[in-house]
Amino acid sequence: MSHEKESARLDTKGLYCPEPVMMLHTKIGEIEEGGLLEVVATDPSTKRDIPKFCNFLGHELVEQREEDSCYYYVIRKGAS
Questions:
Q1: pLDDT tens by residue, 22-65
Q2: 28 CA to centre of own chain
Q3: 3-state class (DSSP) for residue 74
């Protein structure tokens, strides 16, 4: 990660829709508002689902990248 240290990390490699977003929903509830969560996934549908999740629930998608057949997301938790 290039900028700030994440508060938590969620590895969803090998899981398929809807599991990564369900796990994300649970994990983001465990961190402080303003905290960062890095998510690693292999399911291409997360490229659509995770930005929609953030937009719908008021979280900031700080970073989104694809590397070595994995998708990486850094999410800043918004106000609950």
A1: 999 999 999 999 999 999 999 999 999 999 999 999 999 999 99
A2: 8
A3: strand
pLDDT at position 1 over 60: no
pTM, full prediction: 0.90
| 4 — pLDDT class (breaks 50, 70, 90) | low
Strands across the sheet containing 60-67: 8-11, 36-41, 70-76, 60-67
Encoding tokens for residue 67?
Answer: 């590397």
Which amino acid would we find at residue 45?
Answer: S
Structural element, H or E, at residue 26: helix 19-28
Residues taking part in catalysis: 17
Domains of the chain (ranges; CATH) run 8-76 (3.30.110.40)
**Amino acid at position 34, single letter:** G
The candidate with the shortest Cα–Cα distance to 45, out of 27, 24, 29, is 24
